[in-house]
Amino acid sequence: MFDIFDNIFDGFLHYATTYVDAGTTPRRPHNITAVGNDWIAPSVEIHPRDDHDTEMIRHIQAHKQRLRAHPFYEWLRTDQHSPTERLRLFVPMWVMDILGYRDLNRYALTYAEPLSAAEHAVNAWASRLSEHSGLFFSDWQALGLDEVLGHAASGALEWLFLDPDMDLHRQNMIEFAKTALRHRDPALRWWMMIALESTGEEFFAQIRPLALAAETETGRQLDYLAGRHDPPIAARSTGGDTDGAAPVPLTGDQLELAKEVTSHVFDSMERQLWRSYAIARAGKYAIPAEGRRVRLG
User: Is residue 35 part of a domain?
Assistant: First the structure.
């Protein structure tokens, strides 16, 4: 916690000396795509070591099948708004989840002082996953979401931390962090990461066609939403040295706990999809017709 606050204060000091003292305004950095337009992150592949792993795979696949049939995904495919407008109707509320996932991997799922090959493997994968959210800023800009929301700085902070519709994503991230910190065994953390990535894999599989259509519509890259997360040279199932297999086997006592953690991850994702479905259909982030020309050009 002291390290986290030390980094926060470093950020405050850098901002104060670089911009406040100098009387200048920060500019969002330009993110350069590191991969080709046809590249997408590889699927999450799990190579079972034993019967416990096989049972976990079946457990996860059953959850994925249920999630795949969620009405929100049907709305994504069939709603009459343009692809770009459909994305704008729900993407803003995912900012806490996407940026929070970086912190979850960096501070909760990693080991500050790894003591085994299994812990090093978890760290290597978590480190890669923590880098993905940087692409989201470019997508945010490409979709014109600052203009959609129309927030001043104070309004943005109020929305991020006080809007009731943001509570669910914040709550889930906190619960995930508590779960990760409560269970330090690398086998349990690895399966939790598999569950998190599996929910994300289905999310991006559903979002990617819409993102590609929006790219054609706007002429701008949407690398995060299109699933262009990793350069091909770094592509591995998990990013550690386990070749898609758990770095250490689950014991019999851990199997049910791993299932429980996995179910919690999928249930949390399902709640987030229901919230997105409600917000998108209610048009909370819709742009009034009279404001389109002024706010989005």
Answer: no
Global confidence as pTM: 0.84
What is the token pair recorded at 195?
Answer: 């569950």
- Judge whether 81 lies within some domain: yes
- The string of pLDDT tens digits covering residues 239-284 is 444 457 888 889 988 999 999 999 999 999 999 999 999 999 999 9
Query: Please, which residues have CB within 8 angstroms of residue 246's CB and are 6 or more apart in sequence?
Result: 46, 49, 53, 187, 190, 191
Tell me the residue range of the domain where 151 lies.
40-296
Domain count, the chain: 2
186-225: b or e for each residue (b if 16 or more CB lie within 10 Å)?
bbbbbbbbbbbbbbbbbbbebbbebbbbbbeebeebbbbb
Phi, psi (rounded to 5 degrees) for 115: -115, 0
Q: Please indicate, yes or no, whether residues 24 and 170 belong to a single structural domain of this protein.
A: no
Q: Are residues 15 and 48 in the same domain?
A: no
